[in-house]
Structures are given as structure tokens and as C-alpha cells.
Amino acid sequence: MIRQAKGKTPRRPPPKKTSNNQKDPVGVYCRARPLGADDEECCIEVISNTTIQLHAPDGLKANRNGEFKETQYSFKKVFGIKTTQRELFEDVAKPLVEDLIHCKNGLLFTYGVTGSGKTHTMTGSPGLGGLLPRSLDMIFNSIGPYQAKRYVFKPDDKNGMEVQNQVDALLDRQKRDSQSTVPKTPTTRRIDPEFADMISPEDACRADGVDEDSSYSVFVSYIEIYNNYIYDLLEETPFDPIKPKPPQSKILREDQNHNMYVAGCTEVEVKSTEEAFEVFWRGQKKRRIANTQLNRESSRSHSVFIVKLAQAPLDADGDNVLQDKNQVNVSQLCLVDLAGSERTSRTRAEGSRLREAGNINQSLMTLRTCIEVLRENQMCGTNKMVPYRDSKVTHLFKNYFDGEGKVRMVVCVNPKADDYEETLLVMRFAEMTQEVEVARPVDRPICGFTAGRRQRNQAFKDELTRRLEERGGPVDGEFPTILNQLLQSFPPLPTCELSGPNDDVTLPRLIEALEKRHRVRQMMIEEYNKTANMLKSVLQEQDGNIVSKENFIHEQRGKLGEKDKMIQNQKNEIDRLEKKSKMLEYKIDILQKTTNIYEEDKRSLQHELESREQRLQREMSEKRRMESRMQGIVTDAKLKWEKECERRVNAKQLEMQNKLWVKDEKLKQLKAIVTEGKTENRQPQRPSREKDKVPPKRSASPSPAPSPYNGSQSSLSSLEPIYNFSQMVRPDPHFLRQGSVSVASCISEWEQGVPQSRRQGSQSPPDSRKRAQGLPDSLSRRRGRCWAREVPVQPADVDLEETDHWTAPPVRPLHRRSHSAGGERWVDHKPTSNVDLDTVLQLNLPNAIKVNAPNEKALSKCDKYVLTHQELASDGEIQTKLIKGEVFRTRGGGQAVQFTDIETLKQENPVVASSRKRRSSESGQDGEPMEGDWTDVETRCSVALEMRAGSNLGPGYQHHGYTKRRKP
Ligand code: ADP
Ligand code: MG
């Protein structure tokens, strides 16, 4: 409506686009030409018949990133240098020609760098016809016998085709014959030797399925697009040698079917390959001449050779082309030799040349852009505008990409290194082009006439000729027989000879006879008409039947087509499902594998869990065993300690009894003194077992027998007056083990015997350890203890760690008394409140006077005084201090004591001590003595004899060291 409003011819609605929405990708083929010279560097390699590889030439090997470059490109087919023109034609152009004959459009173009073989591929070289002559040859081979007479089809200047009536066609033919100098029939024509060898009839191909009931005509046009101008290469312009006119450019128009065409372009009807190629050659020549005249480079122009095939059905008689424009089908094949794909830099162009090159590039660039946009629209579903109009080439081909048809491209490659970079760009574009899809053209419906009309018509004509020849051929000047027979069936004519001017018999008789004949003729005509009408009606009836049958067939064909489509769809669906099922199978496979891995994991984890459980079980049972063992040990120890306590209580009781007895004795003596003045010194009776075991009285002045220490430690000789080791009795281990001896007796035994053990230990410490093991537990488990003296003098510098305590007890010569020990008498003051600590270190003073409270009498007899004082230390242990002093006589005759020294006995908790000390003793578990046994501090302390410098007192307190016993 809008168009009408604009005053334009209303157009036919555009043909329904693709009733089937099948599409085919642009078929891209690659052809490599041989190198110009054998020693040239080659930068391509045909990998397979679909893949080609480009190697960067030596000079270019490292690209900007410094990496080696090899690129592969895949195409529908790759043709190596050995590919023949025929092979290429079979693969590339043949299907397009077949399509053309079946009313389908096609576009074939060659693309590549200048010199890559585009023209060689499209047109061919001498002796090697290219795709163009071969296509023409195939067309004429196929439609040869079915071509319409010249001028039956006539282009209408609007890209359409009309059918002329016989007379007009005949007149046109006569006109052409009169103008043309060329001989009438092509067979008799001489072919131009310039291109004769490019047409090779022996290679002739033929398309199948040519409709015999149609008439065909081929029209060719040849244009050149240069600098974005279109020139008609077939236009006949009167040549003016004085002022040659520059060629007029043509414009593009859109026909009523929205197809683009070059308005006013010459379309030459051709009837044979030779004629067609001759026309092409003429155009080619013109192009060459124009380019030379105008100083243009032909490689910069696009040449487009269009082959149009018009076909229309024969009429019902099969005699003439049906005079119906709507029944004319026109298909076209465009053969395009594109300009060389060069960058401006390579063309070495300047000024207007540069602009030309730019334009050439521009049109190729537009082609690339169009292809890219098309591809994007198709792949991404976008609807971007494709810039076809930006250049004439793309604008002309718009319908091929927008509408339907088959598009094929041959990419030509020159393997030489110089072209490498441009070839790379060409390849990229070509590879991308393959992703563009073009709608597949549909089959045209056939017209409603009976098939085989041409054959029938031909057969009828043949038969008629034969019969005419048989019956009434003008043999010997006679009439044809059929005419004779017909004449014989009429009433014979009377003799027509007039006897005289007054003969009025002959003429009326002749008139009568002629009238008779006329009547017969009338009758015969009537008869004939009757029969003819009858025959006509029968024929019409038959025709109607045939038409209805044809319609039925057509209908059935339509249905068949639908069914075919359905089958195709279902096939596609099946394909899709098969693909899907394959994918799913693959997925299942992967999942199966994953499951297996997980199961494996699970098994190993379970295994680990089991082993851990077993270990736990084992550890638990171990723990239980340990618990029961510890419980056993605890009850054992408890029992032992209970027994020990009982024993101690008993011993204490006995001791107390002893003390009581001693006191009683004293009391009795005192009583006796009081009552009798002087009585006999009676030996008191000790109660119970102690009776036999009175410790031997020590001599006040022990004999200076040589000590075993003398040899090794001379300083020990100073101790001899007090510690007469040789006289000391070592406690009998056997006896001690009895357990029946009282603690008191033990102590008294110890007072005399312990130094012996110490001496033994000095000779063989491990021995003494062994012996010590024989001691009652109560003793051996006694806490570790040590003596310390508090003297207001500088501290002792004896290094306990360094000294061998057994061979060199740290006794200072300072403590030696100048006089003999026997010369000193001590007052041993022990307050009654003191507790007997049952310690190993005990105050042992021979000839001392023991008192509970100091008295003058005792003091007057002695010159030394010692007080055993007990107090509670800060750690809760009882601490015993020996406070020593010297006795002076006062001027008044009394006694005074001056304290000079304090010695302290400190006890330590063995548990705490043992945790601090080194556990070296445990290394000798099998009873073997080890050096380490003597290295721990406790052991050393327990055997150390410490005396501080500055003490002027007598012997200190001896530490009766026992090595500790191992824990049970
Ligand atoms: P273009 O048209 O691409 O510029 P041409 O077709 O003119 O290139 O080829 C340049 C030259 O290379 C011509 O002489 C041609 O004969 C030769 N040539 C091209 N392709 C081949 C081929 N496949 N085999 C042999 N010669 C070839
Ligand atoms: Mg060329």
C-alpha cells in the first residue's frame, strides 16, 4: 500500500522464503598453486584433503611473542598442486551447474592474493580450461537438444524473461541473420584458436533430470566492478577512434522478487559452449583493452560472469514454448573472479592508484564484514544489519546470502613466502566464511501438462513425414496417392470440352457435376466436422481425465514431499536422540568410574577403621591389665606399710618401756643414795629381749689402729680418735632381716656399725648397695637427708659433685682438735621433749654426760656443751639443730657456756627428691652396678660428710649414707 502511495508499481509479494528451513554452509574450497620456481621458499603444506598448514617463512619465523608459528586451516576440501582443472570442476562447479538446470541459483567465486591462481581457476589457462568454460560446456551438453529457438525467450530489462510468439521470434532471427556476418550454424563456425584449447568437449559432463518437456535458453552477461563502478563488458558501443568514450558505469536495481540485477546490462543469448565462451572472451578482450587504455590493473577489478538459464514448459502439443510469462523460470549462476586480496602497502600505489587500491580493499573488506555479521546473526541469533550496500559486489550478491541458493568459494593460495602474511588473512576470512549458512533452494513445482509432450510431438511429426513419404511423395510427378483417392471418391467430372460458342450443354452439365461435388464435399465436411467434434470431445474428456490424474499425482507428490519432510525430521530427531544417548552413555561411564573410585575409598577407610578399633581394643585391655596390676601393687604396698607401722609401734612401745625402766633404775639409785648414802652400783635388769644385746661399751680413747682410709686419704686420720672404724661392728644383714629386733637395739647397733658399712661402700660401692638392699624396707626407704652446719664463717668450698665421697670425705683440717678427743668431755643436753627421729645420723659422743636439763655438776666436769634442739621447719618437717658451745669457769666459781656453732639436720621428702634426681640407677635393673648409680645428687649427698670451714669443733656429724633401693 505504501509503495502504491509512492506511485510505484505494486510488487508481487516476495517469494515465500524457504518452505523448508534447511540451510547449507557456504562451501569453501582451497586450492594451492605450484611455486613459480622450484628453489622458492614454500610456506604451505597440504596436511590432508581437508586441512592445510601455513608455516611462517624463515625471515618471519618468530612473531612478536617470539614463538614459532604454524597455523592450520580446515576447509570442505583442500586441493593440492597436482589437482587438475577437471577434478576441481567435478567437486566444486558441477553441483552448481546441476542446480542451475534444476532452476536453482548458484554463486561461485575465487578469492585470494594476486597471482594465487584465481583466474587460472575460474577461466583457465591455455590448454587448461577453468571452471567457467567447463560449466558452460556442461550446461549445453545437458540442455542441448531442448534448447528453444533463438529469441523465443527475451529478457524484459527488469531481470525477468518473456516468451515471444513464433512470428516475432522469426522476425528477430531474420534480423540477426541479416546483420551478422557469422555463419548460421555453430557447428560450421570456426572456433577462435585463441581459446579453442580451453574448451575440451571430450571432458563433457551432463546433468541428470533435464526436463524434456521444457525449452531452455542460455543468456550470458559479463560485468566488471572496478573502483566500485559496474561496467558492462558485453555492451556494443560504437567505437570512435578519434574521441574514444569512456565506458559508462551501470547501476544496481532490485527486481520484483527482490533480486539485485545490473540495470541495462547486456544479456547475450548463446546456443553453444563455443558461442558462450566466445562472448566471454570478447568481454575479456574488452576488459583488457579498457584497462590498458585507462591504465588500470585488471587484478584490482572484480569480474562477474553471469549465466542465466531460462526455461519454460512446452505447450500441450509439445510443439511450442508455452506463451505464459508466469511459467518461465530463470535461474542464474554467477562466476566471480574477485580482485586480488592485497593490502594497500603491497600495491605500491600512489595518489589515485592508492584510492583505487583502497576501494578494492574496501569492497573486499565489506565482503568480509558482511560475512562476519551474517555469521554472528546466524550463530548468536542477533539481527544486526548486514552492510551489503556498502559495496557493489556485496550488494549484487545480497540475494544469495539473504535468499536462497548455493554459495561456494575457492580460496587460491600461492605457497611463496612473499605472500605469507596476506595468505594468512585470506585463510582466516575463508575459514570463517564456512560458518555462514545459506538457505537451501527448494524444487520448483512442475506445470500442469502431461509429461512426454515433446517426445509425442516429435513422434507424431516423424510419423507424419514417414506417411507422407510412403503415400504421396511426389513420385514421378504424380499427385500424392491420398489426394488421388480423395478425388476418386467424388462423382466424375463430365468432359469440359466446349463444342462451340453455342454449346450450352457442356457448361450446365459441368455446373451440375460441380454442384454435385460441392454437395458431396459439404456432406463430407459435415461428416468430418461431426467426427472431429466427436473426437475433440473424446480428446477433451481424455485430457480432463489426464489433468485430473496429473493433479492427483501432483497432490500425491505434495503428500509424498510432506511425508519425506516428516521422515527427514524424524531422522534428524533420531540422530539427535542417538547423540544424546551416546552422551548419556558416556556420562554413565564416567559416573560408574567415579562410583568405583568411591567404593575403593570406602573399603580402604573401613579397613582402617577396623584396624583402629582393634588397636583401641588392645589398648583398652592393656589398660585394664595395668589397672589390675597397679591395684595389686597398691594393696601390696598398703599391707606392707600396715605391717611396718605395726612393727614400729611395737618398737616404740618397747623403747618407751626401756626408757621407763632406765628412769625407774635411776630413781631407785637416787632413792638408794638418798636412803643409804652410798650403795653398790647394781646392774639394772633390762626387760625382755634387749637384755642380751647390750651394746659393747666403747672405750673413751679408742685405739689408734690404722684405718683403711689411711692409705688413700691422710686427712681422715684426724677422724680416727672418734671414729674407730676397725672396731665398729657392721650390722648383720641376716640379723636385721629377722624383723624381730627392736628399733632401739637396731639404733644402738647402728651407732657402732654404720661406719663399717660406709667403709665397705668406699671400697666397693656397688657391694654396699647390694648389702643395703638387705636392709629392712623401713630403713632403706628412709628419706634422703643431709646435714648442714650454720657457722658464721665463709662458706665451704668443697665441691661435692667433683669429690669422690668414699675415698675423700670433705673434712677440713680446721676442725681437727689440737688435743686428743679423749681430753674433751661433752655435756650432751637432750631435752625430754625431743622426739627420737630414728635418723641414721645420730649424735655420737663418747664419754659424754647426757642430761635432760643442764646442771652445774655436769658442766663442771666438761669443757664442751651440745644441745640437741628440735623444731618444725617451714616445710613441715622436724629439723634438728645441734647447738654447740664451750664451757668456761666463771670467776665466781660458776659455769658458763658460750655457743660457738650450730649444726642442722634437715630431712627431705624422697618422693620430691627422686623426681628431681637423675634416674640413672634404673639402668642397672639386673643388679649390675653402674657408675651412674653414684652420679645423682641424692646419692652423693647421702654419703657426703660436710664440714664447714672455720669450724673449730670436733668431728662433725657423719652421714651414714645408704644407696637407695630400687622401687619394687
Ligand atoms: P590471479 O588471477 O589470482 O592473479 P592467475 O590465475 O593469473 O592469478 O595466476 C598467475 C599465474 O599462475 C598464471 O600464469 C597461471 O597460469 C599460474 N597458475 C595459477 N594457478 C596455477 C595452477 N594451479 N597450476 C599451474 N599454474 C597456475
Ligand atoms: Mg586474475
Automatic annotation (TrEMBL):
Segments of skewed composition (Polar residues): 754-766
GO process terms (BP): cell division; microtubule-based movement; mitotic spindle midzone assembly; system development
Occurrences of domain Kinesin motor (ranges): 25-436
GO cellular component assignments: Flemming body; kinesin complex; microtubule; nucleus; spindle
Biased composition (Basic and acidic residues): 677-695
Coiled coil, from the record: 560-629
UniProt keyword terms in alphabetical order: ATP-binding, Cell cycle, Cell division, Coiled coil, Cytoplasm, Cytoskeleton, Isopeptide bond, Microtubule, Mitosis, Motor protein, Nucleotide-binding, Nucleus, Phosphoprotein, Ubl conjugation
List of residues binding ATP: G112, V113, T114, G115, S116, G117, K118, T119
Pfam families reported for this sequence: Kinesin, MKLP1_Arf_bdg
Subunit note: Heterotetramer of two molecules each of RACGAP1 and KIF23. Found in the centralspindlin complex. Interacts with RACGAP1; the interaction is direct. Interacts with ECT2 and PRC1. Interacts with ANXA11 during cytokinesis. Interacts with BIRC6/bruce and USP8/UBPY. Interacts with ARF6, forming heterodimers and heterotetramers.
Protein name according to UniProt: Kinesin-like protein
Species for this entry: Phoxinus phoxinus (Eurasian minnow)
